[in-house]
Records
---
Amino acid sequence: MAEASTPKTFAVAMLVAVCCAGLVAGTAVTLADRVQANKDRERMANMLASAGVADADAVEMRIVELETGRYVSSREIGPGTFEQAEAAGDPALSVPIPDDADIAELERRERYAWVGLVREDGHLARLILPIRGMGYGGMIEGFVILDGDLITVRGVRFTAHEETPGLGAEITSAVWRARWEGKRIYDAEGSVRFEVVPGGVSPRSPLREHQVDGISGATITSRAVTALVRFWFGPWGYGPYLDRLASEEGMHG
């Protein structure tokens, strides 16, 4: 009896193991889908809040190849949904930044980036661009929203930072962020001129349309924000994309 029951016992054990493995695998896939869905919702929520858009359907989410400025699909990048923050640490999805260009202290830059476009009456009204760079206490992350002219700042939102409370952490203050509105990233020649000015913008400054008052007592944070904006709107950031988009939209000649 014992010998006859041994194969059956083994078979039952194997069947249970296979079933459990299947359940675990299925649960893992389901959880992975939920995690990804949560990430997608968080990304969209941040972009919507940045752009002041109430309707998620109003934002067209695209992935841009930063080197060329062209749109790509997630399938061109690889399996799974593209995660920009994770890509920066993946040698296959990022590139090293030369020391003389790495003003935001990132070391590596992802090959692709998510962007959000808002159109009104068929015309580009707002463009939402993720930015990040090293601050005083750690990495600063956020979004800049441009008007449809691709030059003028509509708004800014910082979603993650490790700056000092009461000092550099004021980058999240609505009062300070409001000072960005209407400022111009580029000058008439297309050079990046945006700057956060420690001590405040002089009303006599010829560059005041590009300048934002710095945060009192947070000179390093102010300079870091200047650096990360200049990096992302330069040739190593969204420069090629903005040139391509301006051409497609019939702007700037």
Note: The first helix runs from residue 2 to 51.
---
Amino acid sequence: MVGGTYLLEGGDLDLTVVVATSGEAGLIADESLATRENLAEVREREERAALAAGGQTGADLHFFRYPDGGLGDVDREELVGRIADVLRAARPEVVVTFGPDGGTGHDDHIAVSEATTEAFHRVREEPGAGGAFLRLFYGSLPQSELDELYARWRSRGIEVDPGAPFMPRAVPDDEIDVSVDTTAIAKAKYEALMAHETQVPEIQALADPDHDLVFARESFVRAWPLPADTGDDPSAPSLFAGL
């Protein structure tokens, strides 16, 4: 969730996305694009444009509009409850959110991860939840990919402080359960990111020189059901394998 909620029906992907904050404290790359007063509205338009660039014009999009940078101060039960309401309505088979580290250590992302995980388990245990809420995944970055990215940066003379605020966080490679080859849609992924026009300098700094690495793969840790509980091998090329 900020991440998103994904559900599969009739062989098609129906996408539900929850955006907890609208990014009003973020970057304004060009003063002609937005002001500090209207940045949240502009970034919501950019989110819609990004989904369209990725071919998801029919996505069910929910903006919660909590304060950017202040999600940790929002009443936890309120946040969990709102996410649970979306889940009940969407009845997804698969839910994807940030990992416990928020992907970059961002407090808002961590709060979303925690609240989405709690909401997922709350709703899946309710009567009538059968057939939905089958898997919970955390979007994750394998340590080997992050090491390769940092090695490239250092080779270009870029100083790297892995512990700096909002730097990428990674998990050990052997914790990755699903790894999806996305080279065939790398262009669409890039265009979707670039639709966030107010944030373009940060996107380009990460993506442009290392396009082949950044857009080649998406990786996930399966948070539920845990492989140890099911005894199965979760390794798969898709979040929806077997569904």
Note: Residues 1-11 have pLDDT under 50 and may be disordered.
